[in-house]
């Protein structure tokens, strides 16, 4: 019986390590995937600023904010938050920041709801769900947040 309990304990430790490291690898992949989607969008906005401003004036209906401020905030969020995600620095806050950018993009562009092909709206839904996962579970072991936490805990 002791042998069975000993084996169970060894497998449990192995399983816990596999889960911790595997989850961290998955979180790293999620951070890079979703961050790259927003970073590319931000680079496109900055790459043709005149068109970006025209879109925010004419197409995107951002509530409350003037179009110029909305353009700066949108492009800034799409460039800053992914960099934080890539590094795993302030990961939960960056994920929530990108979630806000994502939600604002959907709210501000009602044409997404009228397409015959819902792929664009589905993309925003998937990105939002991935960002919620990152906000809920954090960055995992492969992050600056983890290094800071280990230093703070004295490990």
TrEMBL record:
The chain crosses the membrane at residues 69-87, 94-113, 125-144. Coiled coil: none annotated. Its main location: membrane. It holds the Pfam family DoxX. This is DoxX family protein. It is a multi-pass membrane protein. GO terms for cellular component: plasma membrane.
């Amino acid at each position: 019986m002791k042998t069975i309990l000993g084996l169970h304990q060894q497998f449990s430790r192995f399983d816990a390590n596999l889960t911790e490291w595997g989850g961290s690898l998955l979180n790293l992949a999620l951070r890079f995937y979703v961050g790259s989607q927003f970073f590319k969008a931000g680079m496109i906005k900055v790459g043709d600023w005149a068109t970006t401003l025209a879109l925010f004036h004419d197409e995107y209906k951002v509530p409350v904010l003037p179009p110029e401020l909305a353009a700066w905030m949108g492009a800034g969020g799409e460039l800053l938050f992914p960099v934080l995600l890539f590094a795993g620095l302030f990961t939960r806050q960056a994920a929530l920041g990108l979630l806000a950018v994502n939600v604002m993009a959907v709210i501000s562009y009602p044409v997404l709801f009228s397409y015959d092909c819902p792929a664009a709206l589905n993309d925003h839904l998937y990105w939002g769900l991935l960002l919620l996962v990152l906000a809920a579970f954090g960055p995992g072991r492969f992050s600056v947040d983890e290094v800071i936490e280990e230093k703070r805990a004295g490990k």
